[in-house]
Structure of Molybdenum ABC transporter ATP-binding protein:
Amino acid sequence: MTTSTIKPAFIIQFDLTLAEHRFSIDLSLPTKGVIGVFGESGSGKTTLLRVISGLQPIKNGTIYFNHHFWQEQESTLPVYKRPIGYVFQEASLFPHLTIKGNLEFAKKRAWPSNNQAQTLNTDTIHRLLNMDALLHKWPSQLSGGERQRVAIARALMINPSLLLMDEPLSALDYDRKQEILSYLEKLKEELSIPIIYVSHSASELSRLADYLVIINKGSVHTHGEINQVLTQPHLPSCLQQDVGVILQTYVQQKSPSDALQAVSFSMNNVNTPLWVKHTNALIGEVLRVQIFAKDVSITLSKSIDTSITNILPAEILSIQEDADHMILITLKVENTQILAKITQRSCENLALQAGQMVWAQIKAIAVIA
């Protein structure tokens, strides 16, 4: 394939018709972090991954990654020449090999060392995904969550430049999903491999993704940094409940007796703590939290007889109507913006307007950390 003079980027452009469904994708994506892809069933999420990997042929288009074309019009790079790790919904491990055998099979097909070589080695993969206790077991002896951990480890063993994950948690129960998500967070922190993570779960993507692509009926509805996307008032109806903000906060205080912890919006800020549910994060550590707009209410005066733990002084920056004819209010709390979703009647009764000082109320148990 041709090496291009195009600036380094991740570019995907193609048109495709499958079973009378047309897909038209035009994206320029970051080459680091977790790129979340969200959409309803049949929207084209899996098709996008299959096109990127080469499993779904396209007659013409552009796929450009890491200084190289994988597809340039009709000229296409074969699947086996694309340095991609792929994690499917089902682990599909080799039943006749132990877990160690499955991983060694993948390692024999590893790509030559790249920039991740010092980090992405066997010991690191075993540590990040807690493989040691599983190595001498057979696939039939593993739980669903353990099989998916092995599938992720196997995809990493080939030393990929890009990791594709197609709803890897869809077959797991809630507890197993939380377990795997914690492993994925470790991978994100320690490895520099970009990950495209497809899911129909907004909560999974909110926890993991740095960048979000929303696909609707075969085309891109919107895409951008996840906070920019989730604060938009006119998201598809399936995402209206997930409008809100994702904040990088710092653990300020622990209160084990009532299962809460206080976080601050900046490292040096101790004036406006936000109380959230207890996690294992240590004091001073960064904690990513999500505040849904539907969980934020507004009062004109500070309540003293309420069960709500967080009552924060705020300035109204903007008021707009969303796709559900509710009112979406952007609030400034110190130097941080949060959103509140209220009814038109409440907005009119309180006579809210931009520039007004109010109090934002947020239940501690409503904040996802």
Notes: The CA atoms of residues 248 and 288 lie 5 Å apart. The two ends are 44 Å apart (CA to CA).
